[in-house]
Amino acid sequence: MSKPKVLVARRVFDSVLQRLAAHFEVEGNDEDRVWPKAELVARLQDKDGAFITGSERIDAEVLEACPRLKAVCNMAVGYNNIDLPACTARGVMASNTPDVLTETTADFGFALMMATARRMAESEHFLRRGEWKQWSYDMFTGSDVHGATLGILGMGRIGRAIARRGHLGFGMPVIYHNRSRLPAEQEAEVGARYVSKEQLLREADHLVLVLPYSAESHHAIGAVELAQMKPESTLTNVARGGIVDDAALAQALRERRIAAAGLDVFEGEPRVNPDLLTLPNVVLTPHIASASVKTRLAMADLAADNLIAALTGGTPPTPLNPEVLAGR
Ligand code: 8YV
Predict the structure, then answer these.
(1) Residue 30 burial (CB < 10 Å; 0-12/13-18/19+)?
(2) CA-to-CA distance for 143 and 162, rounded, in angstroms?
(3) CA separation for the pair 82, 182 (Å, rounded)
(4) 5-98+293-326 and 102-284 share one CATH topology?
C-alpha cells in the first residue's frame, strides 16, 4: 500500500522530517519560502495531511480546493490561521501545540516587559551609536518592575505563567481580566485578582497581552483603551498582531500617553507599522517569544505526533476538533 502524502509547509528540523518520512511521502519546503495561497493550494491538492505554521492560512477556500486533506497540524498554539469550523464541517482534524511552549513564551513575555520598563533597547542603541560620554542621574531612568502592578489581559496557560513569575519572583500585585474568571485556587496560586477590563487598564503599571486573536479581540487595545492607561505605564504584546491597533499605539507612544511598549507581534507582520520603527520608546522583536531551540523542537515534534496519529489511526495528542476523529 502506498504511503499517505503530506506537505510540510516550512523548513523544519531534519529529525522531524525523518520521523514524518517513516510514515509518509513527504513534500518539504527546503528553501523556506512562504508560499502564496495559490501555490499552497496547488501543493496541497494531492496531500492527505499538512504540517503548517502560523504563516499558512487554511480557510474554507483552501479546504474546498483540497478534498483529500484529512489533517492540518499547526506548529503553534495560536490557531487563528485555521478556520476551525470549516475544518470540522469537512471532517478535517486540526491540531495545535499547547503546553510545550508555555514557560518559554512566559520567559520572553516577562523579559520583554522588563526590557520595555527599563529601556534596554533604547539605551543599547544609544551606546552602540557612540553617544555615551558620561554618567548622569537621569540617564535612561525607567520604571521599576518589582513591586509594580502587573496587569494581564487573557489569563490562559501563558498568562498564568507570567503572573506566577511576577507574583513569586518580583513581589508584584497581579490583576487580570479574561473572558472567564479563574477558579479561586488558580487565582491564589499565581496571586492574581480578577478585575474589569477598565480597571485593568486604569491600574496596571505593566500591562501584558496574552489573549488569543479573534474577531472579538481585534483591536482590544486601541485609542480608547490606551487613553485609560497611566501615562507612566507600559504595554507588552506577545499574543498576536491585530489585538493592538498599531497606528493608535504609535500615536500614544509618540505623545507619551503611555511610557513605552514591547511588541513581539504586529498587525500584518512581518511588515511593521513604519511609525513604530521611528519611536525610541518601543522594543520590537520579530515574533520570537517561543523561540528557544528546545521549545521549537518540542513544538515541531508535537505537530508531527498529531499528523502521524491522525493519518495512521492513532490518537492525536492535541486535536482542536476531536469530534472529527470519532467519525472516522
Ligand atoms: C510561533 C506562536 O512561533 O505558538 C504560537 O501561537 O505565535 C509562535 O509560538 C508561530 O506562530 C509560528 O508558528
Answers:
(1) exposed
(2) 18
(3) 27
(4) yes
The ligand 1 atom at the shortest distance from the C-alpha of residue 290 is 9
- Assess contact for 75 and 9: CB atoms under 8 A: no
Question: How many angstroms does the Cα of residue 226 sit away from the middle of ligand 1?
Answer: 26
Q: Which superfamily does 5-98+293-326 belong to?
A: NAD(P)-binding Rossmann-like Domain (3.40.50.720)
pLDDT single digits (tens) 141-198? 999 999 999 999 999 999 999 999 999 999 999 999 999 999 999 999 999 999 999 9
Q: Are 58 and 44 in contact (CB under 8 A)?
A: no
* Ligand 1 atom closest to the CA of 105, numbered from 1: 9
List the residue whose alpha carbon is closest to atom 2 of ligand 1. 76
Please determine, for residue 100, whether its predicted confidence score (pLDDT) is greater than 90: yes
- Name the residue with the closest Cα to ligand 1, atom 1: 76
CA 223 to chain centroid, in Å, comes to: 22
Write down the pTM of the prediction: 0.97
Name the pLDDT band for 81 (thresholds 50, 70, 90): very high
